[in-house]
Protein: Phenylalanine--tRNA ligase alpha subunit
Organism: Domibacillus mangrovi
Amino acid sequence: MEQQLKELQNQALEQIAAAANLKELNDVRVAYLGKKGPVTEVLKGMGKLSAEERPKMGALVNVVRETISESIEEKQELLEAAAIEQKLAQESIDVTLPGRPVKQGGHHPLTRVAEEIEDLFIGMGYTVAEGPEVEQDFYNFEALNLPKDHPARDMQDTFYITPELLMRTHTSPVQVRTMQKHEGRGPVKIICPGKVYRRDSDDATHSHQFAQIEGLVVGENIRMSDLKGTLDMFAKKMFGEDREIRLRPSFFPFTEPSVEVDVSCMCGGKGCSICKGTGWIEVLGAGMVHPNVLEMAGFDSNKYTGFAFGMGQERIAMLKYGIDDIRHFYTNDLRFLKQFSVHE
């Protein structure tokens, strides 16, 4: 048995030395030191030896097992070090190579317009207010002087989730929520940017999802002249100091009186394809806040008045940058987006 153990040890050491990778080395370990390995089998046969032979053979088996184990550990360290060296060689970096250029993107045109408008109105003392896109019917319609049976609801083809829950059709609900928070005490001076949704067929000038920015001012002695002055400054800052505005009578359920606001075309009134020969371009709707809206939000309409306005971001961006199709904003075409350089 002593000779058998020495032969096992020599065979194991030879196979350990020949192992080319960690898997082969582990196979050797299992083959010789595993539960069914020859060294374990020798230990199982120790009970058949005499009392005098048993201590001697036990010590020899332990020496063989430890010798094989130590040899495996040494070989494992060598193979692991070699594997690391090989990996480092494969992943080496030539620091003398020129660096890859980092491409800089630019702000999306809608983001640029929104930020520009927000900066303009914040500079005029407004604060930015936001609200949920999934809105209650009360805030989207009823609190804005649009009761359940009001025919003007048909002007905004709505995505309803339940009879009382919908995707907001404008950002005006944010105005109502903000006024309620003020609990009938003015002044209120906010702009409300955000996404809105309407059941509309997508084409060059319409989309079922678009962005709006609305404004609201409520206080004592707020007049139509305040609204006109505010919008005149907005037009000059957004489109150029030489631009003028005009107000045309219109109708909105939540304002009285209501107006459509046009800005003079860049053609200088001569007439072009953009203004369709009129010299004017419609940009937004506005008006004095309806007394019913003020009352429903908790304000005394005998003490407080206000004005509101609303514009589509896409509409402003199309006019500002000369974009002829609203779908360009949503198709993620890099040829389109690259025109808006980060340095502009």
About this structure: Residues 233 and 241 are 9 Å apart (CA to CA). The first helix runs from residue 2 to 18.
